[in-house]
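Now for our target.
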Amino acid sequence: MARPWEADPSASFAHRLGRTAQELGLSQDEEYCPEMWQLDNGDVAVIGRDVTTDYAGRLPDGVKLAPDERLVVLPGSMLRAAKSDIPDA
């Protein structure tokens, strides 16, 4: 059965959501930083720490990860800083 949504790997990065990790005081290393980006197709790309293994045995009821999915965490302050870049529904 086909999934109702698939990531489009041909989508390009359009613009950063929020501020950089350096601007928020969350990183001193430009090479390894969490990020959130709007893609040109409207989807959002998130770069964060892969904690899939750490959370695998304690996901909330009804939450499942497909074999090609990863659970990533990024700083809450980064999401809050992006609020003005995220349109209302």
